[in-house]
Amino acid sequence: MVYLLVLFVYPIFSTLLLSLKDADGSFTLHWYADALTGVNRSVLFTTLRISAETAALSLVFGFVLAQAISRLKPLWAGLAMLVVVVPHFVSALVRTYGWIIMLGDKGLVNETLAWAPGAPYQLLYNELGVVIGTTSMMLPYTVLLLYGVMRGVDRRLLAAASSMGAGKVTIFRRIYLPLVAPGLASAGLLSFILSLGYYITPALMGGPNQTMIATLINQQVTKENQWNGAAAQGVILLVLTLAGLLLVKAVTSLGASRKKRSAT
Fold first, then answer.
1. For residues 233 and 235, what is the distance between their CA atoms, to the nearest angstrom?
2. What's the domain range around 127?
3. Is 53 helix (H, G, I), strand (E, B) or coil?
4. Which of 50, 75, 226, 232 is most enclosed, with most CB atoms within 10 A?
């Protein structure tokens, strides 16, 4: 309790109070109005858009990977999960610079696609580069969540549906997908929430038009010495994160209740 009060509750309330103070110490909502208008509002929309794109791509690639791994034997599945998880323990800064080297004009991707018309392609310092980088960072979380859900699916249900004449598409659409839907929702929301406050990859792989809230907060503190505005941005980011976490909890509870009903 002391740990939470000193290192969690107190900093949050301090940030909240700072965001409500004017230069002379009086109460004001000016910093929130400033955070939701003009350039700051466009930064907020950019953050939401890039986070949504990252979550969608993480779900697509994560679903394919988790589905393939869940069909392997335990030994091979463990090795495959090791390959997925181990890069997560490498510094995010190192991985980001690795992507910068790979996606550069003379990088592996453009060198491989040198024969294609329009090469070299601009894969860095734009929204595409940011989404590629953040998706690679979020992918391990998505695969871990989906793999756990898919391993918990009772394969006898799929076999029973097949024995009764259902095709693969019908089995996937009407049985398998509803069973893993809560996991899909949780994985997508988790990727979205983590992307909201992500700093390193968007800052290094994005351009001026891909400024996200975390980068804006850093600029306001380090370059403009505007702590009040940065505090308001931080509170807005915290509210968005809490809303996402509540949504994840609601989806998880719904999935658990649905699973309990299907079991009975």
1. 5
2. 41-263
3. helix
4. 232
CATH of the domain at 257: 1.10.3720.10
Rounded distance between C-alpha atoms, residue 181 and residue 139, angstroms: 18
Q: Does 248 map to a domain?
A: yes
Cα–Cα distance between 171 and 167 in angstroms, integer? 6
Task: Specify the amino acid at residue 138.
Answer: M
Spatial separation of the C-alpha atoms in residues 182 and 254, rounded to whole Å: 8
Domain count, the chain: 1
Q: Token pair of 152, please?
A: 């918990």
- Asked whether 107 and 101 are in contact (CB, 8 A), the reply is yes
One digit per residue, the tens of pLDDT, for the chain of length 264 reads 888 778 888 888 889 998 898 877 788 888 898 888 888 899 999 999 999 999 999 999 999 999 999 888 888 888 988 888 888 888 888 999 999 999 988 888 888 888 888 878 888 899 999 999 999 999 999 999 999 888 888 888 888 888 888 888 888 888 888 888 888 888 888 899 889 888 888 989 988 888 899 888 988 888 888 888 899 999 998 888 888 888 877 877 776 666 666 555
130 within 8 A of 195, measured Cβ to Cβ: no
Residue 33 domain-assigned? no
CA dihedral 122, 127, 133, 136 (to 10 degrees): -110
* 166, part of any domain: yes
